[in-house]
Write a structure and sequence with these properties.
This protein has about 325 residues and is of the alpha/beta class. The chain has two domains: about 30-125 and about 255-320, 3-Layer(aba) Sandwich (D-Maltodextrin-Binding Protein, domain 2), CATH 3.40.190; about 125-250, D-Maltodextrin-Binding Protein, domain 2, CATH 3.40.190.10. It contains twelve helices and ten strands. The chain has helices spanning about 5-25, 45-60, 75-80, 100-105, 140-150, 165-175, 190-200, 210-220, 240-245, 265-280, 280-290, 300-320, and strands at about 35, 65-70, 90-95, 115-130, 155-160, 180-185, 205-210, 220-225, 250-260, 295. β5 (about 155-160), α6 (about 165-175) and β6 form a beta-alpha-beta unit. α6 packs across α12 (about 300-320).
């Protein structure tokens, strides 16, 4: 009988430990939660994060504070979360470059984009407008390509730099169509690109519906196509890439939530349920998703992880087409 005691004690201890794991998810959060946004205040990522933080504050009964840690292509903010304790109290809300294109742009990263962060949910996604100066004779993307073909190197497009979404999509089109576009990188994000197109310094650029929508409505720029698989609900007259004859140039930007590596699956699932429950509410979707020209996703951690893998594969092809060399 005494010999059986250690085995019984061990089994009892294991049961106790296993019972604690779900309990940890149930008591979360036990203190202030920091939601890191690796981009400046005022952008669409920041707006979505702040709206989500307000609702999570109500749901969780704990303060949810936004930390804007911009710089180095989201690397600074991502690194803060990667190195945080895996207890759910510091999360990352970012867009796709953090775990997709950064691996192709930088020779080394202070985190492993496949292992250092745990996907919680893709909140939303949307395509990029290919936009042009109103006086540019092309009224659709095919006409822009043909105009470029007849005058190699004459037409320029603006981007925020090598390896950015705009650079990748424009160079992919250029290589596939056998035309020559002049790449003009601008510092300071998307705003300088839009201004450059509007005043005619360059002929074209690519920008999200949220960034360029008001300028398209006012006629300061014109949208030639959108890179998402379906048309925008806000701009139903703008054709998709596939409809325009460029099915290989589908490219979406997405907004996703991550936890540090090592966060328990139970806690990841708990946060997923709470966050997706908020963003699926019609009032939240209308004000903070649809209003930005985005499509609601709110998927599971496994579905989000699969989507990231598919994005990496597609981006690798675009990087090759664009001739991007890591720096």
């Amino acid at each position: 009988m005494l010999r059986r005691f250690p085995a019984v004690a061990l089994l009892t201890a294991m049961i106790c430990v296993l019972s604690v794991v779900p309990a940890l998810a149930q008591v979360f959060p036990s203190k202030t939660v920091f939601l890191v946004v690796p981009y400046p205040v005022g952008g669409s990522t920041d707006v979505i994060a702040r709206a989500l933080a307000i609702e999570l504050n109500k749901l969780w009964g704990q303060a949810v504070v936004i930390e804007n840690l911009s710089g180095a292509g989201s690397i600074i903010g991502a690194s803060k979360v990667v190195n945080a304790p895996p207890d759910g109290h510091r999360l990352l809300l970012t867009i796709d470059p953090t775990v997709v294109s950064n691996r192709f742009v930088y020779k080394s990263l202070p985190y492993d984009p496949d292992k250092s962060l745990m996907p919680i949910t893709m909140i939303a996604r949307g395509g990029l407008f290919i936009i042009a100066n109103p006086s540019f004779p092309a009224n659709n993307l095919r006409e822009l390509v043909e105009a470029t073909r007849s005058a190699p190197g004459k037409f320029a497009y603006a981007s925020a730099g090598i390896g950015t979404q705009t650079h990748l999509i424009m160079e992919t089109i250029s290589k596939h169509e056998g035309v020559e576009l002049l790449h003009v990188p601008y510092k300071g994000g998307i705003a300088p690109n839009l201004t450059a197109v509007m005043i005619g310094e360059v002929q074209a650029t690519a920008a999200s519906v949220a960034a360029a929508g008001s300028m398209v409505r006012s006629g300061r720029v014109k949208a030639l196509a959108i890179s998402s698989p379906q048309r925008s609900g806000l701009f139903p007259d703008v054709p998709t890439m596939a409809e325009s004859g460029f099915p290989y140039a589908n490219y979406v930007i997405w907004f996703g939530l991550f936890a540090p590596k090592g966060t328990s699956p139970q806690l990841v699932d708990r946060i997923n349920r709470d966050v997706t429950g908020i963003v699926k509410r019609p009032d939240f979707t209308k004000k903070y998703i649809s209003a930005f020209g985005l499509d609601l996703v709110a998927d599971t951690p496994a579905e989000f992880a699969a989507e990231i893998r598919a994005n990496v594969k597609l981006t690798a092809e675009m990087v090759k087409a664009a001739g991007v060399v890591p720096e």
